[in-house]
Amino acid sequence: MSLKKARMAQSIFASSLLLWGAAAATLTFTVPSSPPSNSSKQLSAAPVGVSLEFFTFPAYMDNVTATTTCLENLKDLTGTWPPLRIGGTTQDRATYDPSLTQAVSYTVASATDAPTSLTYGPSFISLAASYGGEIILGLNRRLNNISNTISAAELAQSQATRLYAIELGNEPNFYTSSDPIAGGASWTAAADYASEVQWQDEVCGNLSVTDRISAGVFFGTSPMSIAGLTAVEGTANNYVKTYCSHNYPQSASTANLATLMGHSSIKSQISGFPSEITAAANLGKPHIFGETNSATQGGGGISPTFGAALWILDYVMQTVILGTQALYFHQGTIGNCQYCWWGRYDMGAPYYGAYFATMALAGADYIAPLDSQTTAYAAYAIYSSESPVKVLLYNSDYYTTGTRSSQTFVLSGLSASTVTAKRLTAPYATSRVDQGSNPTVAGQTFANGTCVIQGTQTVETATVSSAKATFTVSASEALLVYL
Ligand SMILES: *[C@@H]1O[C@H](CO)[C@@H](O)[C@H](O)[C@H]1NC(C)=O
Ligand SMILES: *[C@@H]1O[C@H](CO)[C@@H](O)[C@H](O)[C@H]1NC(C)=O
Ligand SMILES: *[C@@H]1O[C@H](CO)[C@@H](O)[C@H](O)[C@H]1NC(C)=O
Ligand SMILES: *[C@@H]1O[C@H](CO)[C@@H](O)[C@H](O)[C@H]1NC(C)=O
Ligand SMILES: *[C@@H]1O[C@H](CO)[C@@H](O)[C@H](O)[C@H]1NC(C)=O
User: Fold this and answer.
1) Which residue has the least CA distance to atom 13 on ligand 3?
2) φ and ψ at 227, to 5 degrees?
């Protein structure tokens, strides 16, 4: 019944937490023996994916040592390479040049700038094709050169056996009347939808394919939405593989870490997306968050923190329960990217959340919320086939200083005599790797520069008594219980 930690020091620490008495009332959840009615639909093999900004994709693959290992660590958990999207703002600044020998060519004033114009060559496409998992390739629509986009799409179609989808433009809700695609007219939702459908027809017509386009690619849900686009797709829906949303909960000007990571505030933040997911499902297509991360405009200081890792964890669980198939967390300019999971030199704390989310969903078929999503405390039951195999507990109370409170969770309906657990923690919600405050996942860290997991794994054990076991989760911490 009591939580027996693998290490004596931790066990003393845990009991002293109880003595401090700061914890809220114990929360008890019964784990349903089969997926309850508010379970997710069938989960995909690897819901946690990565998006690499278009111009810097070759540098990530060829020149940042951690990239492959960080992706491979996730693959080692699920057996499937995380899905990869290559795209972003610079896909709509890029022109394909079949004679270019390098993967990509551009000039920038400073190494931390993104180029305003670039070209890319056939080796860009072959590098994308060499990735071990599914890829989404983001191509240009903004510059209105459809024959150029078709040339690149044809090469991708012929070379990339794991090509999942092609995007035709990035965040067209931000296009303006002065972009070439607008032809001088005002760029409205109706104009974008008509343009998307026409490009789907012509690109897929030339490629002689169906089910190939990641459509929409809207930032948020207004003024353009998947609900609006699907209403005018008509038979072009045959060319669509998936409908795609982008979501950044915060910007530098609104940055608030407690809100970002708060369990019930995450529910509110994503409340615009169920209707988008339903609109896609009504046309028989999956929905993805093809680009997402914590905060735009450099992240306002909240993005590199452990709290952002906890946000990733809970956001992934809540969005897959809504029915999204996968989330592609964006990695931007190398050396100028607050929310990035890794860089040339240091790891980013958010990677720990992505890793833990992938641990939770590895091998899972369904996940169900056990709580009402109206408090700071989350519990999820995770099913393989029809049986519960894991429970994820999350205490989203924001901890930065002073005495760390904790929440006691009692799980009932357990059939084993003991269960094990792995903990995701850090000194504070505000902890940053580059400031020496490393998170740990089951006691382990990821090495700066290489992303190799290091240290000794700590697995906790809890005794089950009368089908119940008790767990303590500190503020700004999560625990994955293996049933
Ligand atoms: C590779 O990294 C080095 C710094 O380690 C940098 O000077 C160089 O420009 C990078 N090359 C590419 C292609 O990004
Ligand atoms: C469009 O792309 C083609 C090559 O695919 C190129 O020859 C042409 O110059 C491009 N047009 C513009 C306006 O950039
Ligand atoms: C191929 O693309 C061109 C635009 O470059 C378009 O005019 C033509 O209709 C497309 N062909 C098919 C079969 O869709
Ligand atoms: C899901 O269903 C459980 C009962 O199985 C209920 O206790 C919980 O509040 C529900 N949560 C949500 C978010 O629907
Ligand atoms: C990573 O490097 C930072 C310094 O930039 C250091 O403070 C931190 O402890 C290192 N993390 C690990 C896991 O070695």
Assistant:
1) 205
2) -60, -40
Topology annotation, domain 27-38+368-482: Immunoglobulin-like (2.60.40)
295-304: pLDDT as tens digits: 987 677 899 9
Ligand 2: residue whose CA is nearest its atom 3: 148
For residue 411, report the distance from its CA to the centre of ligand 4, in Å.
15
Residues 310 and 478: their CA atoms lie apart, in Å, by 8
Which tops the pLDDT comparison, 300 or 126? 126
Cβ(314)–Cβ(354) below 8 Å: no
Q: For the chain, how far is it from start to end, CA to CA, in angstroms?
A: 14
d(CA 274, CA 322): 6
Q: Is the CB of 369 under 6 A from ligand 4?
A: yes
Q: Give pLDDT tens digits for 303-326.
A: 999 999 999 999 999 999 999 999
Q: Record the tokens describing residue 85, joined without a space.
A: 């999207």
- Is the pTM higher than 0.70? The answer reads yes
pLDDT tens for 38-48 read 999 999 999 99
Residue of 287, 289, 294, 268 lying closest to 353 (CA atoms): 294
Q: Is 36 in the pocket of ligand 4 (CB under 6 A)?
A: yes
Indicate the domain borders of the chain. Answer: 27-38+368-482, 48-365
CA-based nearest residue to 424, from 407, 439, 434, 445: 439
Task: State the average pLDDT over residues 195-212.
Answer: 98
Can you tell me the distance from the alpha carbon of 244 to that of 277, in angstroms, rounded to the nearest whole number? 9
Which amino acid appears at position 198 of this protein? Answer: Q
| Domains 27-38+368-482 and 48-365 alike in fold | no
48-365 CATH pick, 3.40.50.700, 3.30.450.40, 3.20.20.80, 3.40.710.10: 3.20.20.80
Lookup: tokens for 93: 């600044």
